[in-house]
Amino acid sequence: MTGLWKGGLLAAALWLPLPVQAQEAVPAADYSIDANWLCRPGRDDACAHDLTSTSIAADGTVTREAFVPATDPAVDCFYVYPTVSTDPGGNSDLVAGREETFVAQVQFARFGAQCRTFAPLYRQATLTSLHARMGGRAGPVADRDLAYGDVLAAWRHYMAHDNKGRGVVLIGHSQGAAVLLALIQAEIDGKPVQKQLVSAILPGTNIVVPKGADVGASLKHIPACRAADQTGCVISYAAFRDTAPPSDSSLFGRGVEPTTMRAFPDARGLCTNPASLAGGPAPLDSYFQTDLGPWADAGFAWTRNGQHIDTPFVSMPGMLSAQCVTTADGSYLAVHIHAAPDDVRTHDIPGDVVVNGRRFSDWGLHRIDMHLAIGDLVGIVGRQGAAYVAAQR
Predict the structure, then answer these.
(1) Which of 174, 185, 239, 271 is least surrounded by CB atoms within 10 angstroms?
(2) In this predicted model, what pLDDT tens digit does every residue of 322-347 receive, in sequence order?
(3) What's the CA gap between 289 and 306, in Å, rounded?
(4) Which tens digits make up the pLDDT trace of 70-91?
């Protein structure tokens, strides 16, 4: 492969092995300390912010949609966020900045409609390190073991002190998804605790399966989710515009496992369409944060008529649809924009990876993998949680 592969850029994003500086092992964070959690149940934290949304129809009609958190959810959600830290070193600190809070609100807080929310802070590989590599510059080098060690410690603390036999959904994106894949391989897959796995939602990384199969390679005992009430399964995908599919230099959707760098023969990255787990195209239930933060250039407008949106989130029913596309070498979630000439909403979406003015097309819509389908995913977790609880009874 060429391009991003040789430069190690997708390696950094997907949490593939990277050169690390020689250093002494650092103890994992202490998750008995409340401040080391980004989200925990019953707190006023990153997962307790206003999630009110404005739904914009094609004709400009707007409807305000209130968010209703679950009062007594039967299952838990455990989230590991993607590469967002702008701390100056190769690994972040354990202090939640605006970027960690922002991404938890966008990617995870909405799952509070179906589950108790747990999200540890962890000393992740930083955007500072990643952007230096993307620009071909020397920069701080990340310690991948430090990040994984923190998440592992948080998971074990949660299981020992909070879980109490409950079903749990594991949710992560990009670096977070790859770290969770490593944790699932070591702690859950084929182990007794697997019976408590409601599902794993891991977009933006490669869950490798043999061609034509739903299980094997990365995970030996945890298959793809193919129905919304199926439990003990995994959802994973990498989103690209249908007008700009991944090229040969993209690693997303390929048969290469991010946690080990193993390339499996006759295999590809799993694609499960959250809008239609059984297969085929379907409309996406997307939510975007009105203030796009690092996700797009300032000045992006959700409507073409200047209509002001005064809620933290926005949705555009019928604007987007998706289907999984399988090629000879891989698979991906192809996203189509439905914008008629008289549609008053934006005729495009933010989400392309742009660093210092350069667009990295082989990343596709990586930045908005979760945004694109979060309404679908929250609905799936609701049905999976109900199915899990019913099975336990």
Answers:
(1) 185
(2) 999 999 889 999 999 999 999 999 99
(3) 17
(4) 999 999 999 999 999 988 988 9
